[in-house]
Amino acid sequence: MDTGTESGGGDAFAARVMKKAREVQHAAVQSRAYEIGDGGPTTLDRGEELAMYGTQTGKVTGGDVLPGSRGWKGLEEWYSWIPSIFEPFTKLPDPASFDPIISSFDLVISQFGGHPDDPRGKRGDRIDSTIWGNMDSVANNVMKWHGRAAATFDEFSDPFQYIPHNHCALAHVLSQSTKANQQIFKSARDDIFAIADAAIVALGGQTSSGGTDVSFNLTVVAAVAGFVAAVPSFGATLPIWFAAVAAGAAVGAELAPKGDNHKENKLTANIRGNTTDTILDSMVDSVKRFERLVEQEEDKIVRILRSNLEVVNSKNSQADIVAPRPDLANLRSGEIDSKMGPPLGRPN
Amino acid sequence: MGKYDKDYFAADLEALLRMARIKLPDMADVYLTANHHVSDTGDRDASAFTMTSRVYPAWRDLRDEFQRILGKTADNIGGVARALEMVVGHYADADDEAAAILEESVRDSGPKMRSPRYDKLSAPEMPKE
Predict the structure, then answer these.
(1) Which of A23, A49, A76, A172 is most buried, by the most CB atoms less than 10 A from its CB?
(2) Which residue of B has its CA nearest to A309?
(3) Predicted confidence (pLDDT) at residue A253 exceeds the cutoff of 50
(4) Measured between alpha carbons, how far is residue A73 from residues A162, A280, B77 in Å?
(5) Could you tell me which residue, B63 or A217, shows the higher pLDDT?
């Protein structure tokens, strides 16, 4: 069975999708030719009759349709719409193209002393020593001096006890959301082949009496579950961020898989029918359903990203994200004596 | 101001200079490097997200905001380094004796202490509009 995650970039994937789509078309032609040759219970559709025999009597019910015959070629034309159903999926992004972006965010986390798999560190010590340890030292030295620039410096320095953790958290949210989006396309690439393969099996196995029912898994529904579950809980363990992502956590709690419902994260779908056309109708329904599932998974990521942006931009959390520019940073040469005077009370 | 005071004053100036030339630029570097890594994603996103991606607009908005936050923080830290450099220069200019002690101390320090670094920090990259 083909899968979407075999090696190959966008063009190779697109070629494989279209090859598979033509296999579905061929299976449909074979199946319908068998039905007609078997003198099946239905008359030909007038359009189908026109494609096969150049007539529109509405009375043709059977007859052998052999490969290479005019009737066979007519069926190929009749089912030429099938590849177009799959064509949009040739444009599914290459999952590997997300890797450099994920690496960039992981490098950001490393810059702050975090680890991509454990961005806070067990106690966040390394993040503290990377930034806060240094900033605390600066504050201790600046605040020995007197004047407004020195006295208000702690308004700038103190937030560095927690804002680097929040910067790490933001990098983590962006990294994880990119991974989740990547996973959607990994799964989607597999799923579109699963639909096509199920259609081929169904078309090959259907009989005019009992029909056929082929089940397959749509894995795209599990693509985002890890992201939804991980990001809010990650946020909730941060010292300050937990308050800031309260809205995000609520979104996560709503979307996260619950208990036995984990099973719902691999959705079993079916292609069924007792004629070529009912099987193809079922396949088209599966493709449409699959498209909606992809959109639903993407929307879960969007909701969490929007929720986080809302938090970042809210007045309440601004101070948790960016330390206000200190007076000292705007100091002009004529103001030094008044705003940054030497330490008082040195020994004589 | 006696000799004892001069030593203390020079030590206070040296401490500020150490902040201006080592601690603050090191921190600014962390933020600038992080800012550049986030900026790099702007050059790579077009090959990952398709034009019709439902996720991309929200992802881009948060990414851009994060890039601004990192850049602004780097800029603020660099501003403090610049100011402390100016403060030390101001008081050293006004006190020859403290300046001499400071100069000797700087000479005996590592290379990072020998010249200002705030003006060598690269500019933060801001999101493309």
Answers:
(1) A172
(2) B62
(3) no
(4) 70, 19, 73
(5) B63
**In a 3-state reduction of DSSP, which class is residue A257?**
coil
**Cβ neighbours of residue A174 closer than 8 Å, sequence gap 6 or more:** A105, B59, B62, B63, B66
How close B21 comes to chain A (CA, Å)?
Answer: 11
The H or E element containing residue A272 is strand A267-273
Given this model, what pLDDT does residue A173 score?
87
User: How many domains does one find in chain A?
Assistant: 1
**What mean pLDDT, rounded, does chain B reach?**
91
In-domain check, residue A318: no
Q: What is the nearest CA distance from B52 to chain A, expressed in angstroms?
A: 10
pLDDT cut 90: percent of chain A above it: 48
Q: A217, A42 in Cβ contact below 8 A?
A: no
Q: Tell me if A260 is assigned to some domain.
A: yes
Encode pLDDT of A332-347 as tens digits: 999 999 999 998 766 5
CB–CB contact A91 B50 (8 Å): yes
Q: Is residue A63 part of a domain?
A: no
Burial-class residue A278 by CB neighbours within 10 Å (0-12, 13-18, 19+). middle
Q: What is the ipTM of this complex?
A: 0.93
Taking a C-beta distance cutoff of 8 angstroms, is the pair B59, A181 a contact? yes
B61 at A interface, C-beta within 8 A: yes
- A341: phi then psi, degrees, rounded to nearest 5: -85, 155
pLDDT at B112 over 80: yes
Paired strand residues for A115? A118
